[in-house]
């Protein structure tokens, strides 16, 4: 797994470095794809969630996070690798903790430690008796639930997709060599495997988008003046 992650990381950095070094005013196909993805993340996630000023502040982190997760997710559909870099808990956990540390640090910088805890756990307009239940729930969400849910969501989706592909590819192979009338079902099983393969590419992009979007939302919640 570590080798797979290193290969994906190295290839991604090399490809992006080559594209950046050959950037032109009139972009080619590869440069256009990268620029479209950057614009998509910037417009759909960063600007919409954090606004212009805060968006510029966190854009490098969020764009890097999107590309990194997307590349790691694609490892599961690349022949020869066949394993997403995010399909083992270590990588999703580190990414989630990166998000956690970022929104806590910048939240404390904005409000101070006491002010940040109050900001996150005591939303205005709530009847005071409700705070008895709300404060511990919100506190638990800030320190545990957010990053744990990020980890589990990314991990579960990538593992599930990998298992589905393995099952249908294995089924297709078993049917082909069954030596019985069941061989007639092999094309259908193979078609499903190809369909799942294509769907996994979509899921790889979707999970990168969701993870990055939630990171931006948590940062916005921590650094805003009010919820």
Automatic annotation (TrEMBL):
<comment type="function">
    <text>Key component of the proton channel; it plays a direct role in the translocation of protons across the membrane.</text>
</comment>
<keyword id="KW-0472">Membrane</keyword>
<keyword id="KW-1133">Transmembrane helix</keyword>
<feature type="transmembrane region" description="Helical">
    <location>
        <begin position="159"/>
        <end position="188"/>
    </location>
</feature>
<keyword id="KW-0406">Ion transport</keyword>
<dbReference type="Pfam" id="PF00119">
    <property type="entry name" value="ATP-synt_A"/>
</dbReference>
<keyword id="KW-0812">Transmembrane</keyword>
<feature type="transmembrane region" description="Helical">
    <location>
        <begin position="194"/>
        <end position="219"/>
    </location>
</feature>
<keyword id="KW-0813">Transport</keyword>
<keyword id="KW-0138">CF(0)</keyword>
<comment type="similarity">
    <text>Belongs to the ATPase A chain family.</text>
</comment>
<dbReference type="InterPro" id="IPR045083">
    <property type="entry name" value="ATP_synth_F0_asu_bact/mt"/>
</dbReference>
<dbReference type="InterPro" id="IPR035908">
    <property type="entry name" value="F0_ATP_A_sf"/>
</dbReference>
<dbReference type="InterPro" id="IPR000568">
    <property type="entry name" value="ATP_synth_F0_asu"/>
</dbReference>
<feature type="transmembrane region" description="Helical">
    <location>
        <begin position="128"/>
        <end position="147"/>
    </location>
</feature>
<protein>
    <recommendedName>
        <fullName>ATP synthase subunit a</fullName>
    </recommendedName>
</protein>
<feature type="transmembrane region" description="Helical">
    <location>
        <begin position="88"/>
        <end position="108"/>
    </location>
</feature>
<keyword id="KW-1003">Cell membrane</keyword>
<feature type="transmembrane region" description="Helical">
    <location>
        <begin position="58"/>
        <end position="81"/>
    </location>
</feature>
<keyword id="KW-0375">Hydrogen ion transport</keyword>
<keyword id="KW-0066">ATP synthesis</keyword>
